[in-house]
Amino acid sequence: MAARPIFYDTETTGINFDRDYVIEIAAFDSERNKTYESLIKPPISIPKEATAIHNITDEMVANAHSFSEVCQEFLQFCEGEVILIAHNNDSFDLHFLRSEFRRCDKQMPSWRFFDTLKWARRYRTDLPRHSLQFLREIYGFPQNNAHRALDDVIILHKVFCAMVDDLTIEEAYQLLHKPRLLKTMPFGKHQGIPFESIPKHYFDWLQKSGAFEKPDNKELQTTLEHLGLLA
Question: What is the pLDDT of residues 78-108, one digit of tens each?
Fold first, then answer.
């Protein structure tokens, strides 16, 4: 049976998943045409800088449930075989979900995830930017209440459908997670330089520093292994 796509988004007290908290989570089940949305009360005050982005205040979450309580509702919403889809999922939302599950001593299901930012960067190289709001403009969707979870989720669904066209979620997932061989170094002081022109000790240093443990660097690791540049 094919997986069911669940589009989701989180709003947080900051960008550090080790010390910041989820304060809103929303999701859209496009197959069942159902939405889920909940504010969450964090154990810390919401910094003014964060409120300036998503407009969520301490007063708004004062009577909200903790993540531990909301977690069960979210699990029920995402029941069955699903693929969770978020924009910048691999570098942001996924880390916060894992942290919150760990904090409340709950096992996060072995969900599969799809990062639409990665898809856009891979298949819309013609675009100068790949933020959700920029993609919304490119595909001609009306402006929404940006940086509130449910509004972003609804726009994300529309953008996703436009980007993948007639591909199924399973086909898109397989394409996104298929290893690619890179042609040049994607970051750092050697960015844009062909791998054969970079000193091998630099790759040894990346390996020792744990750079390949990050999900974003798996394609780089695959490429270096293919070229025989990793010990």
Answer: 999 999 999 999 999 999 999 999 999 999 9
User: Can you give the residue range of the structural domain that contains 58?
Assistant: 4-176
Task: Count Cβ neighbours within 10 Å for each residue of 87-100 and write b for 16 or more, e otherwise.
Answer: bbbbebbbbbbebb
**Total residue length of the chain:** 231
DSSP-assigned states of every residue in 191-224: TTSBGGGS-HHHHHHHHHTTGGGSGGGHHHHHHH
Candidate list 147, 177, 190, 201, residue with the active-site label:
147
Q: Over the stretch 21-30, which tens digit does the pLDDT of each residue have?
A: 999 999 999 9
Task: Say how many domains are in the chain.
Answer: 2
Q: Is 201 among the residues known to form the active site? A: no
